[in-house]
Amino acid sequence: MAIESLQQRFTERLEQRRKQHLYRQRPLAFSPQQPLMKINGIDCVNFCSNDYLGLANHPQIKQRLITALQNSGISYGSGAAHLVTGHHLEHHLLEDELADWLGVERVLLFSTGFMANLAVLQTLAQKGDVILGDKLNHASLVDGALHSEADFKRYPHLDTQALEKRLQQAYQEQQQAIIVTDGVFSMDGDLAPLAKIQQLAKSYNAWTIIDDAHGFGPLGNKGRGTLNHFGLKADDNTVQIGTLGKAFGCSGAFVAGSNTVIEALIQFARPYIYTTASTQLNAVAVREALQIIQQADNERQQLHDLIQQFRDGAEAIGLQLWDSPTAIQPILLGDSSTALSWSEHLKQQGFWVAAIRPPTVPKGQARLRVTLSASHTSEQVQQLLAALKSCRQTECK
Ligand code: PMP
Question: Which residues form a coiled coil (predicted)?
Answer without folding.
Answer: none
